[in-house]
Each structure stands twice: as structure tokens, then as C-alpha cells.
Amino acid sequence: MNFWNTFAALFSNFGALTWQMVVMWGIGALLIYLAIVKKMEPSLLLPMGFGAILVNLPASGAITQGDTVGPISALFEAGMSNELFPLLLFIGIGAMIDFGPLLEKPWLMLFGAAILALSDAAEEQVLLPQMAEPGADVHGLVDGGVEAFDAGGDEEGIEAHLPGDGVGEYQK
């Protein structure tokens, strides 16, 4: 009789099951399927899938519940709060990068350099003047990018910066 009580106790936590947990089980199973069967980034998707299932088991003890500190919560405090795990993760993933296509066509590095140069130029054109001038007002992109920056915060409004006479071409 003791065996049956112990066996029933294994399933007693499923009373706390919610539909959100079941959805996360499905997402975790999908990630595991993609990692194993489709071979899509298994080093990333497999642990994510198992983690999604593990932390969504009702009252599993994997995460902190009440006074009991779960192992995943302890790992989070040990490695995520001081940013050690992201560093190790990016170093590990960076070590696994396949540089074959880049070594076959080294001119592809020019695309990365061009993107970096364009983003730096955009930062210099938008962010640096704004920081240099007190009282600067950033409008954002209005109607397809008309007047992204107004340094004076003038009273005229954006209509003064639009092409044409402003009648019928722009409406607030």
C-alpha cells in the first residue's frame, strides 16, 4: 500500500497545472525537436527546450518556491546577476563559429565594415548634435522621415520644415 501512496504523490503536483505551463511544454518540445531532428543550432535550442520544460513543471523545485531555493534560481544568482554566464556563453558560441564562408570570400568583411561605418555616421549625425545642444528636441520620424532633428525647439512646429507652402500637404 505504501508503494501506491508514493506513486500517487508523484502526480499530486499536477493540481497546480495551468494552461500556460502546457503551452511552454509545447514550446520546449518544439525547441528540442528543432535541435535534434532539424539540426538547427542544437547547442542553443536543446538547453533552452529542456529549461522551458523544467521550469514549467508544477512545484518541481527547479526554481525558488517559498523558502526552498531551487537550483536554477541559485545558478541564476551565481552567474547571471554578475554577468559571468553571458560572457562564457558568447565566448563559447564564438569559438564554434564556422569561418569557412568568410575565409572563402574575405571581401564579405567589407559588408560588415560598411554597416559599422554607416551606423557610426548615423550616430554622429543624430545623437551627437543632440547631446551637444541643450534644449534640443528630437521629433523622430514623421511622415516618412521629414525633419528628424530640430535643434531650436522653435515655436513654428514641424510645418515650417516641410517642403511647399504647408497647405494641404501635411495635416496633424
Structural class assignment: mainly alpha
What can be said about the biggest beta sheet?
none
Strand content: under 5%
| Helical content (DSSP H or I, runs of 4+) | 40-55%
Distance between the termini: 77 Å
* Element order: H for helix, E for strand: HHHHHHH
Q: Which overall shape is indicated by the principal axes computed on the Cα atoms?
A: elongated
Unreliable segments (pLDDT under 50, ≥5 consecutive)?
A: 138-154, 168-172
Number of strands: 0
Return Rg in Å.
27 Å
Describe the protein.
The chain has 172 residues and is mainly α. It has helices at residues 2-10, 19-36, 42-54, 71-80, 84-95, 100-104, 109-132. Helix 2 (19-36) runs antiparallel to helix 3. It is elongated and about 75 Å long.
Please name the defining characteristics of this protein.
7 helices; elongated; 172 residues; mainly alpha; disordered C terminus
Summarize the structure.
The chain has 7 helices and no strands.
What is the strand and helix layout of this fold?
Elements: H1 2-10, H2 19-36, H3 42-54, H4 71-80, H5 84-95, H6 100-104, H7 109-132
